[in-house]
Write a structure and sequence with these properties.
wza like fold; four-stranded antiparallel beta sheet; alpha+beta; 4 helices
């Protein structure tokens, strides 16, 4: 009797362990697919509806709510345009030079021709500019709209006492370099150049 009970208990344990092993193997098999799916889509948590002007190569996510096409993700072409679904037959949409909000309004107008109850939301990737060297808070900062060099330095809490005001280096995202005279930029707006996403501002130390 006791032998029979021990065999039954042992058999039950084997069945439980087998079931657990099968469950874990199934979960492991699903992991790569889930990961691949998440990597195929842009992370909308890292995107915004900011007021910065769109530029070629910016990543744009067009989200549709209501009856309409599937969400559309693409980078703006070198000519500044996109070809969103359905309305692509009407020609490309000019995106560069618009803010996310302006593009949203343009798309809403175009899609109204095909869908009565459709809301269009435009998301763009978060963008940054960088300020380093002799500023009080050297760091990267979110780019949220039109910005000049002196304003970017102000965002970094201003110059230190050791800053060389006449040799500030502005390096564009495309590698172009420009020297800025901070004193002239403050007094004459034409010397206060605009800052774009990806730009680096470096304030060198003054030579004593």
């Amino acid at each position: 009797m006791g032998y029979t009970m021990n065999v039954a208990r042992l058999s039950l344990r084997i069945l439980v362990l087998a079931a657990v092993g099968f469950f874990l193997a199934g979960c492991a098999g699903l992991a790569p697919a889930d990961k691949a799916e998440s990597e195929a889509k842009p992370d909308t948590n890292q995107m915004t509806t900011g007021n910065a002007l769109l530029r070629p190569n910016d990543l744009v996510s067009i989200v549709f709510s209501g009856t309409g096409p599937k969400n559309f993700d693409a980078r703006i072409k070198e000519d500044g345009t996109l070809l969103p679904p359905i309305i692509d037959k009407d020609g490309p949409v000019q995106d560069a030079g618009l803010t996310g909000a302006q593009l949203e309004a343009e798309l809403q107008k175009r899609y109204a021709k095909y869908f009565k109850n459709l809301t269009v939301t435009v998301l763009t990737e978060n963008r940054w500019f960088y300020v380093a060297g002799e500023v009080r808070v050297p760091s990267r900062f979110p780019y949220s709209g039109e910005l000049k060099v002196t304003q970017a330095i102000a965002v970094a809490q201003g110059l230190t006492d050791f800053a060389s005001k006449h040799r500030i280096q502005l390096t564009r995202a495309n590698g172009e370099k420009v020297t800025i005279d901070y004193t002239k930029a403050l007094s004459k707006p034409k010397f206060d150049l605009p800052v774009y996403p990806g730009d680096h501002i470096f304030v060198p130390r003054r030579i004593l």
